[in-house]
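Practice record 12: protein with NAP.
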Amino acid sequence: MAQAQLPTYDIVIFGASGFTGKYVVREALKFLDSPNSPLKTLALAGRNSSKLSEALKWASKSHPAVPFLIADTSDPLSLRRMASQTRLVLNCVGPFRLYGNPVVSACVDAGCDYLDICGEPEFMERMEAFYDMKAVEKGSLVISACGFDSVPAELGLMFNSRQWVSPAVPNRVEAYLSLESDKRIVGNFGTFESAVLGVANANKLAELRMSRPKRTRPPIPGPPPPKGSTIEHQKKIGLWAVKLPSADAIVVRRTLSILTNNPSGLEGVFEDPKQAEKRAAFWSTIKPAHFGVKIATKNLLGILGFIPIGLSIGLLGLFSFGRWLLLTFPSFFTLGGFRKTGPTEEQVASASFKMWFVGHGFSDSKLASDGNAKPDTEIITRITGPEIGYLTTPIILVQCALILLKQRGDLPKGGVFPPGIIFGPTDLQDRLQENGISFDLISKSDIST
Ligand SMILES: NC(=O)c1ccc[n+]([C@@H]2O[C@H](COP(=O)([O-])OP(=O)(O)OC[C@H]3O[C@@H](n4cnc5c(N)ncnc54)[C@H](OP(=O)(O)O)[C@@H]3O)[C@@H](O)[C@H]2O)c1
C-alpha cells in the first residue's frame, strides 16, 4: 500500500513579505531548529519571491536557508500546493475579509492546520459557518485571532477568573488597554484597512448571525453589568477610558459559549487519560463573567483624542466616498495613528502595553442569587508586554504555532475555533511569560462598604 506523503514543512508563513509578516518571520527564526524546538522546517510564502527575499534579509542577518513558495489568494491551485506541503499555515495576509476565505478552504481541503492574526469578527464567524464540519472531518484545526487580537483578552479573562477561589465568583470583568511609548504610537495601513472594511460591512455580520443558531450563553451569577457612562474614570488604576470596538469581547463570548456546551473543554485527538484529567481540572477553575474592553489613557485629553477618530471611521466608513477618503488619507483621519508606511523599528521598539482586568464579583456565590445583589469583591489583574501589533502579535502567533507542533495530540482533531478554548488549558500563558508578556495579580479588595 502506498504511504501517505508527509508534509515537507512544519510551518509556512503566508504573507511573509507584509509589514506584520516580516516581524512574524523574525520571531519564528528564533525557534527554527533550536534545541528542544519542534520547529525544524520553515518556508515563507507570498506573491513575489524578491519581496520574500527582502523580508528574510530584514528578519535575519545570518541568511538562513529558508525556501520560498509562491502563492496568491486569487490562484486556488497555488494555495492548494502550499497547504499540501506543510503541517501548519500561519496566515498574515489581510484584510482577511478580502483574502482569507480561499486560504482557509485550501488548508481544510489539505487537512493541514491554520492559524491567523485576524481581528475581524465577521470573517471568523463566517469561517466557522462554512468550514467547521469539514475541518472536523479532515482533521484541520482552524484558529483565528492568534495575535494581540484576541489572545491577551482570552487568557487575561481566564487569569482573572482563576483568582476567584470558590465560593467566590466573578460577575463582570472589564479590560482597560493602555498603550504606552516614548515615541509616537503608529499602526500599519493593513490594520486600519481591516477596521474600516469591518465598519462598512457591519450589517453583513448582523445578517450572518441572524442566519445561524443562537449561541449558548454561559450562566453568570449576579445582575447584568450596569450601562455606565461613555467616558469612564477608573480611579483604582488611574485611567480614563472609552469602549473599544475590537473583536476581543466577541471572541471571548465564543470561547465561553463553547465551554458552556463542553464544561471540561474539548477532547484531544490522541489525549491520554492523565491529560484529559488535567484539561478538565483547568476548565473547572474558569468561571464565566460578563466581559468588555476599553481603551484607556492616563489623562482625559488623551481619551478625548480617540473620540473624533472613532467617529470619523464610524461615519465615513459607512459610504464608499467616505471609505475612499479614509483609505487615501489614513494619517489625517487618525491624527497620525495609522500610516501607509507603518511605524519605524525604533517606534515599535519603544512601545508597550498594559491591559488591566478589573473584576467585580461576590465573596460567596450565594450572595449573587439575590436579584439586587451588588458585587462585594474586586480583583485586579494585569498583562504587560511589548508593542502590540508587531512584537506581541508575532510572539503570540509563534508560541501558538509551537504548541500546535508539539502538543497536537492533546488538541481536538479539527474544527474552527477561537483561540481561548484551544490554548486555555495548554502552557501558552507560561510560554508568553517566558517571552516577555507578563500576567500579574495586582490586588484583591473588599468593596462591600
Ligand atoms: N491580531 C492583531 O493584533 C494584528 C496585528 C497586526 C496585523 N494584523 C492584521 O494582519 C493583516 C496584515 O496587516 P499588515 O499591516 O501586515 O498588512 P500588509 O503590510 O499590507 O501585508 C499584507 C500581506 O498580504 C499579502 N497579500 C495581499 N494580497 C495578497 C494576495 N492576493 N495573495 C497573497 N498575498 C497577498 C501582501 O503581499 P505583497 O507583499 O506581495 O504585497 C503582504 O504580504 C491585517 O488584516 C491586520 O489587521 C492583526
